[in-house]
Write a structure and sequence with these properties.
The complex is a heterodimer of chains A (810) and B (60). By secondary structure, chain A is of the alpha+beta class. In chain A, a hairpin with a 5-residue loop joins strand 7 (311-315) and strand 8. In chain A, helix 13 (450-460) packs antiparallel against helix 24 (736-759). The radius of gyration of chain A is 33 Å and the shape is elongated. Residues 1-6 and 801-810 of chain A have low confidence and may be disordered. Chain B is built from two helices and no strands. Classes of the chains: A alpha+beta (810), B mainly alpha (60). Chain A binds chain B through residues 49, 53, 103, 106-107, 110-111, 124-128, 171, 173, 176-177, 180-181, 184, 187-188, 192, 205, 208, 211, 215, and chain B through 1, 4-5, 8, 12, 15-16, 18-19, 22-23, 26-27, 32-33, 35-36, 39-40, 42-43, 46-47, 50.
Chain lengths: 810, 60
Amino acid sequence: MIKEPEQRITCYHCGENCEEETIDKDDKNFCCQGCKTVYEILNKVELCDYYTISKAPGANQKSKVRLDKFAFLEDVQLQQKLIHFKNEKQSHVTFYLPQMHCSSCIWLLENLAKLDHHIIRSEVNFLKKEVSVVFSHSNSSLRSIAELLTSIGYEPHFSLNDLSGKAIKKYDKSRIYKIGIAGFCFGNIMLLSFPEYFSLGVIEEKGLKKLFSYLILVLSLPVFFYVASEFFVSAFKSLKQRYLNIDAPIALAILITFGRSVYEIIGGNGAGYMDSMSGIVFFMLIGRFFQNKTYNTMAFSRDYTSYFPLGVTIINEEGVEQQVPISKIKVGDRIKIHSNEIIPADSILFYGKASIDQSFVTGESFPVEKSIGEIIYAGGKQLGGALELEVIKDVSQSYLTSLWNNDAFKKTEEKGVSYIHTVSKYFTFVLFSIAIVSAIYWQINDPTRVWNAVTSILIVACPCALLLSATFTNGNMLRVLQNFGFFARNAGVIEQIAAADTIVFDKTGTITEQTNSEIKYEGTPLDEQIAQYVRSLAAQSNHPLSKAIVSYLPSYKKLVVKNYHEEPGAGIVGMIENNKVAIGSLNFFNPNAVQIDVGTKVYVQIKDRVYGYFAIQTNYRQGLAHVLGKLKERFKVSLISGDNDSEYSKLKNLFNAKQYFNRSPQDKLEYIEKLQKENKKVIMIGDGFNDAGALRQSNVGIAVTDNVNNFSPACDVIFDGTKFSHLDDLLKYCTHNKLIINISFSVSIFYNVVGLYFAVQGNLQPVIAAILMPVSSMSIVLLTTGLSTVLALPIKRKYKLRGRLFLKLI
Amino acid sequence: MSVIFILIIASLTIAIGFLIAFIWSVKTNQYDDDYTPSVRILFDNELRSKQQSNSKEKNK
C-alpha cells in the first residue's frame, strides 16, 4: 500500500530524518532552519569539532524558542537567587541543561568562551547535566548567556525550586572522612597488635611493649570519639524516645570494649581489644555507606515548584507585555501563555484557542479544548497558539497545588520501621540474659572473674553482625535493582515492597506509553496521491492526532493546502489541488452519527467520499498483560484514573478487578487512605501530578517515567518505563531481602556462639576476638552480596534471553 | 631492636600523610564528578594541537 522511501536524508546537526524540507549548506543537509543556524554559529568561531566528536550530536531545533523568553532573568531579585557567587568582576552561575547527552556536548559547552568573550570559564558536570559558567557581569548578563545557550541548542531549564531559597542539599561527606579515619586507625592498630598476638603476649623488651600499647590507645581515640559518635548519638536519641534501636546495643558494646581496653592498657596487664573495636566500626560504616549511596542525579522529593516555569508574561494595564517571575503573579493579573508553556495558576480563558494537554495533571490522555470564559487549571500545557488568561487563584492555592496542603505531605518521618530494629531487640534481650546468668555463676564460683566474663560477653555479642547483614544486603539489592531501571530512594523501600499486598495503578502514562499511539488504517486503500493529500492536510494542524497521522504516513512531497479550516475538537478541512480534503471524527461529517465502538477514530473524506478511518489506540506498555497476570497472583490489583472510561472494556480483560475513572487527585489519595485503613499495605504506581498525593500516601510510591532524568513527582521509587515488563520480577526480588538477612544473620550467630564459648569462661583473649571479628565480618559481606547477586541471576538471564530472541525475530 | 622505634614513628608519619591527602582530596570535591574529567582530558589535546598548528601557520 505505502512504500518506504528508499533513501532517507538525515540532518547533519540532529541526525533526524529530513521529512518536510531539506536545507543545504556547505554540502551538508539540515532538517530545519534552526539546526542550520546552530551550525552557522559554530562554524563562524571554528567550533565545528563539535560534529566530529560524535555523529549528529545536536538537539532538534524545529520548535523555536520565543525571543523574549528569558527576559525575566533581568529581575534583580531573581538574579541574586540564581547567581551563587559574585565579586566586583565576575559572577558564577549554574545552568541545568536537560539536552546534554554526549561528549560533543561537553566539548562545546566547555568552549563557551569562544562564542562569547565575556564568559571566562565554563565547566560541565555531565552526570548532573549542569554547566557552571563564570562570566564578567559588567559586559554580559544572565539573560544573554541563557540566550546564547539556547541559540546553540541547549535551552537552560529553570524551575521555581531553584528559587525556593533552600540551598541544594550538599552531599554530606563526613561519613567518607569517618571511613577513611576508621580504616587508617584500624589498619595501624592491627599492625601494632601483631607482635602481641604472635609472641602470645610475651615481648622481651619492656619499652617496646609499652610503646605499642600506648600508640594503640592514641590511635583508637579518634575512632571512639569521632568516628563512632554517630552510633552514640543515634542510641541516645532512640533511648530518649523510649525505643530500642539497633544502634543502642552497638553503642554499648563499643563503650564497654573501649573502657575495658583502656583499663587494660593503662593497667599494663593486656593489649585490649582496640583492633576489634575499630575494625567493627570501620565495617559497619562501610556497610551504611554502601546502603545509603544515593543517586545524586535523581530527585525523589520534587513537588510542583520544580515543574512550574520561573517566568511568565503578564500584560499590564497599558497593554504592554512584561516578563515577571512567577512568584509575582496576583489574582486578577492578565497573563499570556505561549505555545508549549505551562499554565502557572488557575485562570479563566480570555482570548485565544486553548488546547490543553492535561495528562500530567488529570490523567486525560488527549488534549482538551477550552473555549473563552472557561476555567483552565494550573499545570496544563498549552499546545495551540498563544493565550490570554486572567488569574483567579494564587499559584500556591490552585486546584493542583492545593493537593500539597494535604496532611500526607506534612508527614516527614520515614514510612515504617525497619525490622532489623525489632530483631535486635530480641537479640539484646537474649544477650543480657546470658550476661546475667554467667555473672551469677561466676559470683558463686569465682568472683574475680565476674567483670571479665560480663564485659567479654558484651564485647563479643554485639549485634553488629546483624547491622552488617542488613546494610550489605540492602546496598547490593539497590544496585541490582538499579541495573533494571528501578531506583529506590533508600533501603527501607525494599522492606516495604516485600511487605505490600495491594497494588494500585494509574492509567495514563503509567500503563500506557506517553508517545507512539498505535495507528491502523481501515477502509479503501489509500494510493500514493491520496495519502499525500491526507498527510499534507494533517501537517497543518498541531493536534496530537494529526501529528500521529503525519508520522504514520510516509512523506513524498508536500502539497499546498488552501482554505484551511480547523473545527476545534472535530476535524480539519482544506483544498488540495482543487479537491476538498477533510479528516476528523464521525460527527464532523455527520452530526447525528453516534460512534458505537470504543477508541478514537479519524475519518478521511475526499471530494465527499469517505475512504476509511485511522483507528488510534492508546498503546499499552509492552508486556502489560503478562505483568498484570503475574502480579495478580500475589497482589490485589486495582486501577484508578483521572481519565474517562473509554478504554474500560479493553482494560476489563486485563485487570479483571476494580477500576475507577474520572477521579481527582484528591480522590486518589483518599482511595489509598481507605485501603490502608483496611490494613492493606499499598504500592501506588503512577506518573504525574495527579498521582502525587496517592504516591505520597501509599506505603511505597513508584513513579514510572520514560526518561529517568525527566520530572517525576515525589515518590519512593523512580522506575524506568521501558523496563515495565520486568516489574513483576523486580517486586518479587525485593521479597528475598528478609531471607538473605536471616541466613547471613544465622551464620554470624555461629561466630557469636564460638566467641561466647570463650567469653562466658572469662577467657576471651584479644587474639581470639581479633580473629573472630574480621572473619565473621568478611563472611557476612561475602554471603550477603553473593546471595543477593545469585538471586538476581535468573532475572538477568531471563531478560537477556528475551532480548536475543527478539533480535532473531527481526 | 631500638631501631624499631624510629621505624614505627616513620611509618606512622607517612601513613598520616596519606590520610591527610585522602581527606584533602575528598574535601576539594575531587570525587564529585567521576565522568566528565575522563572525557575532558581527551578534548584538551585536540584543541591545543589545533591552536598550536594555527599559531605556527601564522608565525610563518
